[in-house]
Design brief:
By secondary structure, the chain is an alpha/beta fold. It has one domain: Aromatic amino acid hydroxylase (Phenylalanine Hydroxylase, Orthogonal Bundle). It has twelve helices and ten strands. The protein has a five-stranded mixed beta sheet with strand order 7-6-9-8-10. It has a three-stranded mixed beta sheet with strand order 3-4-5. A two-stranded antiparallel ribbon has the order 1-2. Helix 4 links the parallel strand 4 and strand 5. The longest helix has 20 residues. Bound molecules: phenylalanine and fe (iii) ion.
Length: 299
């Protein structure tokens, strides 16, 4: 039978420390669920239970509801096919397995077509508290639940289309857009009726930052401002110095709807802002004390 034009094409098998993995032209791999060890499932259970306890009253209500609605449970690593059976009818998104980080354009193309790449392997027990690269726990527990939210689902697809465009414009545009992803999708906070809540995947998948982002006096918490964010450098190896707060996913969607081309041109004339700086023009929810901040450079 004819393959759909977007269907990944298997090109080779690669060997990893988890065994042989089929690799497709788009970087897509099988989840190979049967290959997970008891230790892998136990790692998922440990992380899942710890985070869910921490996130009640800290994560956005929408995130927690969506995670329940998808049927993610601690007892075993979810099968992508089972999650897709819930996710696809809800918002048209589908999970695909990947080996790890993808080339930028491939990543954007997947998002634009409502395919979310999920790293198939889970961290080792000695990496429970911290791992540098995204693994299955970060991707699945952190990113996937909000794809059930229709507005956030549209935002992610629009981001993918915007990524393809920024890639064509050039590296500075791409850097501006990457900062937006970082300060929303990965490290965003949202203002709910009962106070600030987390929706960023990089936070919800980290026990330390789940507490730090909301309760520490060290970081700044500043109202969402598109161009300000696109100028702001960030941290990759420490907690963020600044978190940006949205009022709603609708606000995020509306603010990012305009054509970014003239914005990129304008930003090219402006200097970047260090990760911890507070500006006169900022809406400040909390001015950080800066306690414990690294003094070496931001990305
Ligand atoms: N509106 C942006 C553009 O024209 C695309 C975009 C949408 C980027 C949503 C991020 C999020 O480039
Ligand atoms: Fe991520």
């Amino acid at each position: 039978s004819a393959q759909a034009p977007t269907a990944p094409r298997r090109v080779e098998n690669i060997h990893t420390d988890k065994g042989k993995v089929p690799v497709y032209a788009t970087g897509v791999v099988d989840q190979n669920w049967a290959g997970y060890t008891d230790e892998d499932h136990a790692t998922w259970a440990t992380l899942f239970e710890r985070q869910r306890k921490l996130l009640v009253g800290r994560a956005s209500g929408e995130f927690l509801r969506a995670q329940d609605a998808m049927g993610m449970t601690p007892d075993r690593i979810p099968k992508y096919d089972d999650l897709n059976a819930v996710l696809e009818p809800a918002t048209g998104w589908r999970l695909i397995g990947v080996e790890g980080l993808l080339p930028e354009l491939d990543f954007f193309d997947h998002l634009a077509n409502r395919r979310f790449p999920v790293t198939w392997w889970i961290r080792r027990p000695d990496q429970i508290d911290y791992i540098e690269e995204p693994d299955l726990f970060h991707d699945l527990f952190g990113h996937v639940p909000l794809l059930m939210n229709p507005v956030f689902a549209d935002y992610m697809a629009a981001y993918g289309r915007g990524g393809v465009k920024a890639h064509a414009i050039g590296p500075d545009a791409l850097q501006n857009l990457t900062r937006l992803y970082w300060y929303t999708v990965e490290f965003g906070l949202i203002r709910e009726a009962d106070g600030l809540r987390i929706y960023g995947s990089g936070i919800v998948s980290s026990s330390g930052e789940s507490v730090h982002s909301l309760e520490s006096a060290a970081p700044n918490r500043i109202g969402f401002d598109l161009e300000r964010i696109m100028r702001t450098r960030y941290r990759i190896d420490t907690y963020q110095k600044t978190y940006f707060v949205i009022d709603s996913f609708e606000q995020l969607m509306a603010a990012t709807d305009p054509d970014f081309t003239p914005i990129y041109a304008r930003l090219a004339e402006q200097s970047s802002i260090p990760a911890g700086t507070v500006l006169e023009s900022d809406t400040v929810f909390q001015r950080g004390t800066g306690e414990g901040w690294a003094t070496d450079g931001d990305v």
